[in-house]
Amino acid sequence: MTRGLLFLLLLASTTVQAGEVYRWVDAQGNVTYSDQPPPLAAKQKTLVKGKGNVVEVDKESYEAKVAREKYPVVLFTTACGPVCDQARDFLTQRGIPFTQKDPSKEPEIALELKKLAGAMEVPVIQVGKEHQKGFQHGQWGKLLDTAGYPRAPLLPAKADAGKKP
């Protein structure tokens, strides 16, 4: 019984140490990484701190990345109420990266919107060189589908998806 308990304790202690990684430089200048402590003669000894078993993944799908590069999305909107809120929510829920521009705050953006859409009406979505005035769920969806944006986000949507320039 005591042998079994001793064996379990030894096994548990080795798994705890398995997460530590040491880095050191030997006498010839070679850098070594190991889970074993460095020899006494080693120089520049450090314990490498890790984050555990974490794998960083891209938060954007390949399709979304390609679409974003070819057809960037710009949302022209103001504090126009429910229609502008629905437009922002639509893009956010679909996981579309977009830049939000408010023509009521900057004259340059107002001129850009007037040149693009012919009027100072919001919301307006611009996907690449194409645009759509007024929020229409189906029309905006088709515009984004044509540009190659995925219909569902890779990760859940964040509330701050629309960055301001």
- Quickly count the domains: 2
- Distance from first to last alpha carbon: 69 Å
Unreliable spans are 14-18
- CATH structural fold name of the largest domain: Glutaredoxin
- Radius of gyration using CA atoms only: 27 Å
Which structural class best describes the helix and strand composition?
A: alpha/beta
Strand content: 15-25%
- Please give the share of residues in helix: 25-40%
Largest sheet: 5 strands, mixed
Beta strand count: 8
What overall geometry do the principal axes of the alpha carbons give? elongated
Spatial arrangement of strands, main beta sheet: 7-6-4-5-8
Second rung of CATH, namely the architecture of the largest domain: 3-Layer(aba) Sandwich
CATH H level, superfamily name of the largest domain: Glutaredoxin
Tell me the number of helical segments per DSSP (H or I, 4 or more residues long).
5
Q: What's the helix-strand series?
A: HEEEHEHEHEEHE
The CATH class of the largest domain: Alpha Beta
**Average residue-wise pLDDT:** 81
Model description:
With about 160 residues, the protein is α/β, with parallel strands linked by helices. It folds into two domains: about 20-55, no CATH class; about 60-165, Glutaredoxin (3-Layer(aba) Sandwich), CATH 3.40.30.10. It is built from five helices and eight strands. It has helices spanning about 1-15, 60-70, 80-95, 105-115, 135-145, and strands at about 20-25, 30-35, 45-50, 75, 100, 125, 130-135, 160-165. The strands form two sheets. A five-stranded mixed beta sheet has the order 7-6-4-5-8, sandwiched between helices. Strand 6 and strand 7 (about 130-135) form a beta hairpin. The longest helix is centred in the first third of the chain and has 16 residues, at about 1-15.
